[in-house]
Write a structure and sequence with these properties.
Blueprint: H1 27-35, E1 46-48, E2 57-60, E3 66-74, H2 81-98, E4 102-112, H3 119-136, E5 140-147, E6 152-161, E7 177-180, H4 186-194, H5 200-210, H6 216-221, E8 226-231, H7 236-248, E9 250-254, H8 265-270, H9 276-285, E10 289-291, H10 297-303, E11 312-316, H11 321-330, E12 337-344, E13 348-351
Parallel strand pairs: 4-5, 9-13, 10-13
Antiparallel strand pairs: 1-2, 2-3, 3-6, 4-6, 7-11, 7-12, 8-11, 9-12
Helix pairs in contact: 2-3, 4-5, 7-9
Length: 352
């Protein structure tokens, strides 16, 4: 049985050329765009900027508080408008959690084809986002709307963190273990959905994973043994691990057999349910990845699979692994697993 289509005459995904975090500009293209960008003077209060492609900007307010500021938005990844709103809002708030912070305020970003989408559909998208923000204790205090060719929804998200508890993606140390909070495969599920090949159970799994808030971030930031945090989104596991390696000037080794996958995604990927973003990701950073002889093309596609509202990736010392896994388990992330480690060396990722 395929995943239900709310209105067969009006599929949200048919309005967009790409969905979810698979809409991101390819990493190689983004690097080229930013390569010669003008660098303005950096005030001392700006604790995190664009230097290491971190999840959010962080600005010191005082000795006890720093402001986290981020934004995220994309085109529909599912056809149900309420689910689309929930996924987009969850994904936007994730960057605050990935910095070790607590979200406090959101602004809605809404771009819709007003002449083609019924107002009730747009209203349901906003209601989905509001439901997630309400669950996170975050008011949506305003926003901006425009008429657009493609439907786009997301949030500006603001949060607070203690300046000493910020977890950058560049803080990892040699010997750290890598722990992944959510299983991979959202991009594969979205590709199957768009081709009407996703079962009802597969759709339920997709929604469950993409709407689970990464609330563990704040508790993880309190652990002295946690040195770096990021969330795995549009560039896939390999891409975001590489960002961590480049920021810290380290080399990562991933154990493919330990990487958690959403049930059924391996078979779907083998059947060709792979996003175009997966290939673009590999083209953008594959030169810095060494795949073991046993890693197949399907497995490579899963390693580069764009994750929408993906899991937290944690770099921690070996002594803190049990605490990290305990926090994930307490918060309902039952698939969290140790997937690799970091060592001194030129920034790259080896997969075995």
């Amino acid at each position: 049985m395929n995943a239900p289509i709310v209105n067969p005459e009006l599929r949200l995904t048919s309005f967009s050329h790409g969905g979810g975090c698979g809409c991101k500009i390819a990493p190689g293209v983004l690097s080229e765009i930013l390569r010669n960008s003008t660098r303005m003077p950096i005030p001392p209060q700006l604790l995190v900027g664009i230097e290491t492609a971190d999840d959010a900007a962080v600005y010191r307010l005082n000795d006890q508080q720093a402001l986290i500021a981020t934004t995220d938005f994309f085109m529909p990844i599912v056809d149900d408008p309420y689910d689309f709103g929930r996924i987009a809002a969850t994904n936007a708030l994730s960057d605050v959690y990935a910095m070790g912070g607590t979200p406090i305020l959101a602004l809605a970003l809404v771009a819709m084809p007003i002449d083609r989408l019924p107002l009730e559909v747009i209203r349901r998208i906003l209601e989905g986002g509001e439901a997630v923000c309400a669950a996170a204790g975050v008011p949506i205090a305003g926003g901006h709307t425009i008429d657009s060719v493609e439907p786009i929804y997301g949030l500006v998200a603001l949060g607070l963190v203690h300046p000493d508890k910020i977890k950058k993606n560049s803080g990892a140390r040699p010997g750290d273990r890598l722990v992944l909070g959510k299983p991979l495969g959202v991009g594969v599920l979205s590709a199957a959905l768009k081709k009407e090949k996703l079962s009802a159970d597969g759709y339920a799994a997709m929604i469950a994973h993409t709407t689970r808030l990464n609330v563990s971030g704040k508790a993880l930031s309190e652990l002295p043994g946690v040195h770096a945090l990021t969330d795995v989104t549009g560039f896939g596991l390999l891409g975001h691990t590489l960002e961590m390696c480049r920021g810290a000037r380290l080399r990562a080794t991933l154990d493919w057999s330990a990487v958690p996958l959403i049930a059924g995604v391996r078979d779907l990927a083998a059947a060709g349910m792979i996003t175009g973003a997966s290939g673009r990701n590999w083209a953008g950073y594959g030169q810095d990845v060494r795949l073991g002889a046993g890693i197949s093309d399907v497995e490579r596609a899963l390693l580069t699979d764009p994750q929408t509202s993906g899991g937290l990736l944690v770099a921690c010392d070996a002594a803190s692994v049990d605490q990290v896994l305990g926090i994930f388990a307490r918060d309902g992330f039952d698939a969290a697993a140790v997937i690799g480690e970091l060592a001194a060396g030129e920034p790259q990722v080896d997969v075995r």
